[in-house]
């Protein structure tokens, strides 16, 4: 069974976005919807769905050109075309009769090997296929995406008792590898996993908020990043999801679950939906409301639940949150759980509800504890799931607090109490829903999970480690805040190179399991050294940085970079120099140094010039014909362009056509390891180039002329001009050449270093760095 063509039925928000994700993965897809009786365009709804996806922000498509893979149609004229689809998924209205009617029509035309799925968020899968043939039921499996499908990692795969296990395996592998999703196999019960537990948490948070006398904005401070959860926290998430959706899901779950699972909505929430019709972002008003001030600037107003008036409460500060700023997640969680006053009372109430309910659901919504943790992490943006959080606090501490509140322990927690065990994850094992220990299994088809296995560390520093990936491949892994690049990270790469050679490994992967590959250099360190006039030390540091980045290409063994997320500045320069790149599809890569008044100093400027000149025909690598390559590199670096996906990174030139794009971030380390093993036999160490053509003064003159016009037109500032002229000097190969010359890579690296230090010594650059560190935004001085 292979899924090479797909069909999506229903071109609403979810259906169109699912089709876009299939197209992102390179899968041709049909998008079908009903025919509107009064519209002459019989495919209007499907066409509108594609256009909506193209305009969506954040973008649904990784590359707008991928929309060409979507063929639109309608359910009257084109239903027969479903015979070509290997996978058919519906995303129509959440009504059981409508879905049953659709499946009767689909069964008549679908080929006998097609996998059939529903994206329903709540209607049990087994009810949808009643009356269908045995073969259809065998090939039917729920596939519940979370919105937006491109960005939310979770996909709940929901087999029915009739689903063939081989179908579950085939579909899960396709969804994880090709679509890039995180798979949680859920039981076919009300709410499945994420919504069952997530909506319970939202409902209980509303109740505890009003008991504690807090506001929605205060609760969102308490239940957001401080607690290791998404910045949208509780009530901003509710607005984004739609208060009507939460209202209906909570009511349905309340009817379908036992009385002790309290999904009762507060009177205030019911009033928002039933009386006010304030449904969140879709109506413009919910717990928050966007408005414009007199200057046209967007302002967020907060809902006062006592008066139902929107108020400008300014920047909401919460003492318990302020007290834990800057602390690691474990320390923050422990401090917040033990906080005093009404803030602590609220947090303990909400967290204990979540712990109790997650334990109660173990073995009910899914058969593995890590599925519950992963569902909350991948579907709601939590850093830790409920069982991982209990491990942080100590399971016995949580049990004692639950008993102090007079709660009856669920069987899982009763078994943990009896065993005395204080963690669900421990020594490569995990507890089963029945309270027994078993070997920990990484999420279904992920081949490695280094966060759960620290036994493979070969050498460790505070901000980086060398890890044995097995089969003769080492990993240089960074684990600092935002993976900013400093001495630990550079020395660890050097350590790894030496270990590869001394211990006979095949090669090296550069990657990590953080939130981002690397946000760039350690700016506070660079600024402090510049302000202390430590220029010799800075010169040595930049030389070392260049040596380490270029060592990825000029080592006697293959190196493969595995970038993902933010891959900026120095992180991009490491990536550019690897023999091969296995990039996550969600790659936000760019050489952004001009934003802080610098230019790339670790070989990035050199590398982009080299790549773009090499892409020209040999006859274009002479004289003025080189100028398009120089201008392309100048524009890319000078505008600090950052890709919005790996596909765009390839279009921009950051990735080569031979580099690999993996849809699933969790697979890139294993894919990178395989690339090392593929390159290792017969690997020949490259030598630095000596033949890079440059234009000298001719290029500088052309770029300065363009810059002058931009400056006169007010498009760039005085200091933009200063930075840009230094960039032009490097890309031209230096001054003094009035004709095309050929220079070495080292020559360009020396020019980079000189320009970097020159700019770092200027007040304008130091002001830009200070402003970025204080505000997180660039300064236009």
Helices and strands in order:
Layout: E1 6-9, H1 13-24, E2 29-33, H2 44-55, E3 70-74, E4 87-90, H3 96-109, E5 115-118, H4 125-128, H5 134-138, E6 141-145, E7 154-159, H6 165-177, E8 182-185, H7 194-212, H8 216-222, H9 235-241, H10 243-256, H11 267-276, E9 288-292, E10 298-304, E11 309-311, H12 319-322, H13 329-337, H14 341-361, H15 369-380, H16 386-393, H17 395-404, H18 411-419, E12 425-426, E13 429-431, E14 437-439, E15 457-461, E16 464-470, E17 473-478, H19 487-503, E18 507-510, H20 523-531, H21 535-551, E19 559-561, E20 565-568, H22 570-576, E21 580-584, E22 587-590, H23 604-614, H24 627-638, H25 646-652, E23 660-662, H26 668-679, E24 692-694, H27 697-712, H28 718-731, E25 741-743, H29 745-760, H30 763-775
Parallel strand pairs: 1-2, 1-4, 2-3, 4-5, 7-8, 17-18, 18-19, 19-21, 20-22, 21-23
Antiparallel strand pairs: 6-7, 9-10, 10-11, 12-13, 13-14, 15-16, 16-17, 24-25
Pfam families: 3HCDH, 3HCDH_N, ECH_2
Domain Enoyl-CoA hydratase/isomerase: 480-605
Keywords: NAD, Oxidoreductase
Detailed description of the structure:
This is 3-hydroxyacyl-CoA dehydrogenase. Residues 191-289 form the 3-hydroxyacyl-CoA dehydrogenase C-terminal domain. Residues 480-605 form the Enoyl-CoA hydratase/isomerase domain. It comes from Deinococcus xianganensis. Residues 5-188 form the 3-hydroxyacyl-CoA dehydrogenase NAD binding domain. This protein has 781 residues and is α/β, with parallel strands linked by helices. The chain has 3 domains: 6-185, NAD(P)-binding Rossmann-like Domain (Rossmann fold); 194-438, N-(1-d-carboxylethyl)-l-norvaline Dehydrogenase, domain 2, CATH 1.10.1040.50; 453-760, Alpha-Beta Complex (2-enoyl-CoA Hydratase, Chain A, domain 1). Helix content is 44%, strand content 14%. It has 30 helices and 25 strands. It has a 7-stranded mixed beta sheet with strand order 15-16-17-18-19-21-23, sandwiched between helices. Strands 3-2-1-4-5 form a 5-stranded parallel beta sheet, covered by helices on one side. Strands 6-7-8 form a 3-stranded mixed beta sheet. Strand 6 (141-145) and strand 7 (154-159) form a beta hairpin. Helix 20 runs antiparallel to helix 30 and helix 28 runs antiparallel to helix 29 (745-760). The radius of gyration is 28 Å and the shape is globular. The relative contact order is 0.06. The model has no long low-confidence stretch (mean pLDDT 94).
């Amino acid at each position: 069974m292979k899924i090479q063509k797909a069909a999506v039925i229903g071109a609403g928000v979810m259906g169109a976005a699912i089709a876009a994700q299939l197209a992102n993965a390179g899968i041709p897809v049909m998008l079908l919807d009903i025919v509107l009786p009064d519209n002459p365009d019989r495919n209007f709804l499907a066409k509108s769905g594609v256009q909506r996806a193209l305009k969506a922000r954040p973008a649904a498509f990784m590359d707008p050109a991928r929309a060409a893979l979507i063929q639109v149609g309608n359910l009257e004229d084109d239903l027969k075309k479903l015979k070509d689809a290997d996978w058919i998924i519906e995303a129509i209205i959440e009504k059981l009769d409508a879905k049953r009617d659709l499946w009767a029509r689909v069964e008549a035309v679908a080929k006998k090997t097609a996998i059939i799925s529903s994206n329903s968020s709540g209607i049990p899968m087994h009810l949808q296929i009643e009356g269908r043939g045995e073969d259809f039921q065998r090939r039917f499996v729920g596939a519940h995406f979370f919105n937006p499908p491109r960005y939310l990692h979770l996909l709940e795969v929901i087999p029915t008792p009739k689903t063939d296990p081989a179908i579950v395996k085939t579909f899960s592998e396709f969804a994880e590898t090709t679509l890039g999703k995180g798979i949680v196999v859920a039981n076919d019960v009300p709410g499945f996993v994420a919504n069952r537990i997530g909506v319970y948490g939202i409902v209980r948070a509303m109740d505890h908020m009003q008991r504690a006398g807090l506001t929605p904005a205060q609760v969102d401070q308490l239940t957001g990043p401080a607690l290791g959860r998404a910045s949208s926290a509780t009530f901003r998430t509710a607005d984004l999801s739609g208060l009507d959706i939460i209202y209906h899901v909570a009511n349905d779950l309340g009817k379908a679950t036992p009385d002790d699972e309290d999904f009762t909505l507060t009177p205030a929430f019911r009033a928002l939906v039933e009386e006010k019709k304030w449904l969140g972002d879709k109506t413009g008003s919910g717990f928050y409301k966007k408005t414009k001030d007199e200057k046209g600037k967007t302002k967020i107003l907060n809902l006062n639940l006592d008066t139902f008036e929107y108020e400008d409460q300014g920047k909401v500060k919460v003492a318990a949150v302020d007290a834990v700023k800057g602390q690691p997640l474990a320390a923050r969680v422990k401090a917040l759980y033990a906080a005093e006053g009404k803030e602590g009372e609220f947090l303990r109430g909400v967290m204990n509800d979540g712990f109790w309910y997650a334990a109660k659901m173990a073995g009910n919504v899914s058969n593995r504890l890590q599925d519950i943790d992963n569902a909350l992490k991948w579907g709601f943006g939590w850093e830790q799931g409920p069982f991982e959080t209990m491990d942080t606090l100590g399971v016995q501490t949580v049990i004692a607090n639950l008993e102090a509140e007079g709660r009856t322990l669920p069987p899982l927690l009763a078994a943990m109490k009896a065993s005395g065990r204080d963690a669900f994850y421990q020594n490569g094992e995990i507890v089963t829903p029945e309270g027994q220990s078993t070997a920990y299994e990484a999420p279904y088809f992920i081949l490695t999970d280094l966060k759960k296995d620290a036994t493979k560390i070969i050498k460790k520093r505070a901000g980086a480690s060398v890890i044995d990936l097995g089969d003769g491949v080492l990993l240089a892994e960074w684990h600092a805040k935002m993976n900013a690049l400093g001495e630990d990270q550079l020395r660890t790469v050097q350590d790894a190179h030496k270990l590869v050679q001394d211990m006979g490994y095949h090669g090296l992967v550069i990657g990590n399991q953080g939130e981002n590959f690397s946000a760039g250099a350690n700016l506070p360190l660079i600024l402090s050294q510049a302000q202390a006039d430590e220029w010799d030390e800075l010169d040595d540091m930049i030389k070392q940085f260049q040596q380490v980045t270029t060592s990825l290409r000029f080592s006697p063994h293959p190196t493969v970079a595995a970038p993902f997320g933010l891959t900026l500045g120095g992180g991009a320069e490491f990536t550019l120099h690897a023999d091969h790149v296995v990039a996550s599809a969600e790659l936000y890569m760019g050489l952004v140094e001009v934003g802080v008044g610098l230019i790339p100093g670790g070989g990035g400027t050199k590398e982009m010039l080299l790549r773009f000149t090499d892409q020209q025909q040999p006859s274009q690598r002479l004289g003025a014909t080189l100028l398009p390559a120089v201008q392309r590199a100048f524009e890319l670096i000078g505008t600090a362009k950052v890709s919005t996906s790996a596909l765009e990174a390839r279009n921009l030139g950051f990735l080569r056509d031979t580099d690999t794009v993996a849809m699933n971030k969790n697979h890139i380390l294993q894919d990178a390891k395989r690339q090392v093993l593929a390159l290792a036999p017969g690997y020949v160490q490259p030598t630095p180039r000596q033949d890079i053509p440059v234009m000298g003064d001719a290029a500088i003159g052309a770029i300065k002329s363009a810059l002058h016009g931009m400056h006169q037109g007010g498009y760039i500032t005085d200091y933009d001009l200063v930075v840009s002229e230094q960039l032009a000097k490097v890309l031209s190969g230096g001054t003094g050449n009035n004709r095309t010359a050929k220079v070495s890579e080292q020559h360009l690296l020396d020019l980079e270093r000189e320009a970097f230090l020159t700019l770092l010594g200027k007040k304008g650059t130091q002001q830009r760095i200070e402003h970025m560190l204080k505000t997180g935004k660039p300064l236009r001085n």
